[in-house]
Structures are given as C-alpha cells and as structure tokens.
Amino acid sequence: MKRSPLRIKNYFVTSFSVKANPAEDGAKTPLEDGVNIVTKVETAQHADNKRDWKVALQVDCSPVEKNVCAYIVAVELVGFFEIDKELPEDRIADVVAANAPAILYSAAREIILLMTGRGPFPPFALPSATFIDETPSSKRKAAEVHKSPQKQTK
Predict the structure, then answer these.
(1) What is the CATH number of the domain that holds 43?
(2) Is 149 domain-assigned?
(3) Which structural domain, as residue segments, surrounds residue 30?
(4) Is the pLDDT of residue 151 over 80?
(5) Does the residue 87 lie in any domain?
(6) Is residue 150 a part of any domain in this protein?
(7) 6 Rama class: left (phi>0) / alpha (psi -120 to 50) / beta
(8) pLDDT-based confidence at 153, cuts 50/70/90?
(9) Would you say residue 147 lies in a domain?
C-alpha cells in the first residue's frame, strides 16, 4: 500500500435531505435503476498555503421519471485537505480534483446508507464513481482532442 499524498483534515455535512417516495411504484423499482445522480464539485486553494484546499461536493439523487425511485436525496459536504510536501506542485491540482471529491463521495454514500436504512424501503447506496475526468490535465487533453483538426477519409 502506498499512502495518498492527499490527507483529509476535516469534513462536515452542510446540507442533507432525504425523502421517501410516497408512490407505490417507488418501492417496486430496484434502487439503482431509475435514479439520476448529479454531482457538483467546487475547489478552492488556500491563499497563503498552496497545499491546503477546501473542497465542496453536492450530490443530488432524483427519479428519472416520476414515481420510479424509492428515495429523493440531496447532500452537500465540505472537506479540508492537505497535500504532502513531497508532491510536485504541478501535480497538486490533479490530485485534489480526482481524489478529494472521491473521499467526500464515499462519506456521502455512508451517510445516505445510514439515513435511508431507517426509511420504509431498502437502504440506498450511491454507485461507485470516479472524478478523474474532472482533473485539469484531463480537461486540457479533452479540449486538445476536440480542437485538433479531424482527418478526412475518402
């Protein structure tokens, strides 16, 4: 095992809402089907210490269609992270963008499981997710591919 260069110093929930679907159809649909999951991430680097970061994650789970999911969930978490001194500065933003939201997402999954476990339907677990495509270097590569002229074939 190799330790991550990203260390979580603290995190907390800033907002949480869960609503059991009152419609009968909500209980009949498998929990992983019929659910639209949207995430929003905001990152901020500390003004004085470039290795300290604040990351906010918002997760919204709602039905794809009316009455087709057991729970409607919204959760927001804020975490404070520190980057190891050994990590080169040019890699910091990528490590934070890929890993900090993933850590908060895991915390959100546990909180949602705990709260929906006390509801009228089986507990809901967020599916696995990756934030690797949201790193600055991944976004740059995607933009370069999009900008490069396409070769035309005959």
Answers:
(1) 3.10.420.10
(2) no
(3) 6-138
(4) no
(5) yes
(6) no
(7) beta
(8) low
(9) no
pTM listed for this prediction: 0.86
The residue type of 52 is D
CA distance to 65, 105, 111, 132, 146, per residue, from 54 (Å): 35, 15, 20, 18, 31
**Helix (H), strand (E), coil (C) string for 51-69:** CEEEEEEEEEEEECCCCCC
Residue appearing with tokens 């006390």: 118
Contact 34, 116 (CB under 8 A): no
- What's the structural domain count of the chain? 1
Q: How confident is the model at residue 32 (pLDDT cuts 50, 70, 90)?
A: low
Confirm if 97 and 136 have CB atoms less than 8 A apart: yes
Lowest mean pLDDT among 19-23, 42-46, 47-51, 119-123: 19-23
Interval 33-75: pLDDT, tens: 678 899 999 999 999 999 999 999 999 998 877 667 788 899 9
